[in-house]
Amino acid sequence: MSYITTLTRMWLTRTFKPFTFTNDYDYRLNFDDCENLGLYVHIPFCKKLCAFCPYCKEVYTYEKCDDYIDYLIKEIHLVGSQMSEKKQVTSLYFGGGTPALAAYRLYEIIAAINEYFIISEGIGLELHPDNVNKETLLVLKESGISKISIGIQSFQKKFLSVLGRKEVDFVQLSEVLKRTPFETVSMDFIFALPNQTIEDLKADIEMAFSSGANHIAIYPFINFSFTDSTVQVMGKKEKRVLLDEITRYCQTKRYIRDSIWTFSNSEHAKYSSMTRDNFLGFGCSATTLLINQFKVNTFSVEDYQKRIDGKELPTSLTTRFTKRQRMMYFLFWTSYSTKVNPDDFEKFFHVPLKKMYGFEFWIAQKLGFIIKENGIYFMTLKGAFYYHYYENYYTLSYIDQMWDVMRKEAFPDKISF
Ligand SMILES: C[S@@+](CC[C@H](N)C(=O)[O-])C[C@H]1O[C@@H](n2cnc3c(N)ncnc32)[C@H](O)[C@@H]1O
Ligand code: SF4
User: To the nearest whole percent, how much of the chain has pLDDT over 90?
Assistant: First the structure.
């Protein structure tokens, strides 16, 4: 598989040059010309760390989290004050870790963001089921949060115990959610757990929608090499059957698929921090994607704070794109939404998609990965499986390797893929 992906990358980028990340970085980020810019804020604290989880996170203490937020606000001022006027952005997402643990300071963080940015599509935040109580939801609402995402993983005890998580109180969850409505209530689930069947997943999906969710994300379990996970990995064939069954089931129920892993029961419900043309990330491990570069902040809370003290950006690694590399990146993440609109490509790159990748899209149609309707390319079931397969491979070979290095070293010299 590794040589196939390397050859594919060389072909699509028309160069032997790999993606190379180095420890150099810009002191001033150039995002003035970026349209469709999203914001992301990372808060890396959790009450209890889950063995299967790869994200940048630490055990929560009030003092550590409070101190971290002071620095986060300083980073926002450092980046924001570089602009001469306020910048229009699509959305702001808080992820983690468990950002709901910092609910009492969200108002301050959002106020700092609002000094420099105008948010047009709302503010989202991730919660652990333990955070879903009347008091916290009210604080979130008062702070301006319009979308919430709750990490349920499964409503069934047998799968939660495989993941080392405790049972979710379904009745209490439903009551609290009904009393405090949000524009989007999303719930995260993990599939491809040992012996999990489509019936288990259908039950989870229906319980989610009946408890007050209007959006769900069903992620395939990924076994990151550096985690202490003991969860057994499901075989490729079994996983494919399950993924197709989930998609077909959601289609028959007329749930709307808005990305490869997400479905909603209302067209107004949206929750996605991934599908943006460009985004700015604040906090440890947060990534930033601009027209010419992709950068990752340091994973070390201590070194993050030291850089901010020195009034420098906490960037750990940066890659600078060639035009074709940026196109490949654009197409990979746009495909995450299961469709590619050639007009969006042309608007971003000022060159028709057909001219740059007409042959590749023709082949993909012939192989049954995509179909074209009203000028837009849509992924088929087969295409969705292979996208998932490729993304899984990419995650395990590249992201896994990069995060493993970054967990151990605050500022590595260089990583090449
Ligand atoms: C930051 S957590 C969500 C909020 C909160 N910390 C919680 O766990 O409830 C983001 C989501 O990533 C997903 N996730 C974490 N580790 C994963 C893994 N190894 N494979 C697939 N999904 C994973 C889970 O569904 C989780 O809800
Ligand atoms: S899954 Fe959520 S609660 Fe568990 S360690 Fe990851 S971020 Fe923290």
Answer: 76
The pLDDT score that the predictor gives to residue 10 is: 66
Task: Write down the pLDDT at residue 177.
Answer: 97
Q: What separation in Å is there between the alpha carbon of 3 and the centre of ligand 2? A: 33
Ligand 1 atom with the shortest distance to the CA of 96: 1
Q: What is the mean pLDDT of the chain?
A: 92
Of 50, 152, 228, the residue with max ligand 2 atoms within 8 A of its CB, to mutate for a pocket test, comes to 50
Instruction: List, in order, residues 6 or more apart from 351 with CB less than 8 Å away.
Output: none
Tell how far the Cα of 361 is from the centroid of ligand 2, in angstroms.
38
Q: What confidence tens digit (pLDDT) does each residue in 39-52 have?
A: 999 999 999 999 99
CATH code for residues 1-17+323-406: 1.10.10
- Determine whether the shortest distance from the Cβ of 128 to ligand 1 is under 6 A: yes
Whether the CB-CB separation of 380 and 371 falls below 8 Å is answered with: yes
Q: Which amino acid is at 325?
A: Q
Q: What per-residue confidence (pLDDT) applies to 16? A: 64
- Model pTM? 0.94
Exposed e or buried b per residue across 126-155, where buried means at least 16 C-beta atoms within 10 angstroms of its C-beta: bbbbbbbeeebbebbeebbbbbbbbbbbbb
Could you identify the atom of ligand 2 that is nearest to the CA of residue 54? 6
What are the boundaries of each domain within the chain? 1-17+323-406, 21-264
Residue nearest to atom 8 of ligand 1 (CA): 151
CA of 288 to the centre of ligand 2 (A): 22
* Ligand 1 close to Cβ of residue 222 (< 6 A): yes
User: Topology of domain 21-264, per CATH?
Assistant: pyruvate-formate lyase- activating enzyme (3.80.30)
DSSP 136-184: HHHHHHHHT--EEEEEEE-S-HHHHHHHT-PPP-HHHHHHHHHHS--SE
CA 112 to chain centre: 23
Q: 336 C-alpha to center of ligand 1: Å?
A: 18
Atom of ligand 2 nearest to the CA of 49: 5
**In the chain, which stretches have pLDDT less than 70?**
1-5, 7-16, 273-275
Given this model, what pLDDT does residue 385 score? 83
The answer, yes or no, to whether any atom of ligand 1 lies below 6 A from the CB of 102, is no
Centre of ligand 1 from the C-alpha of residue 284, in Å: 17
Examine domains 1-17+323-406 and 21-264 and report if their fold is the same.
no
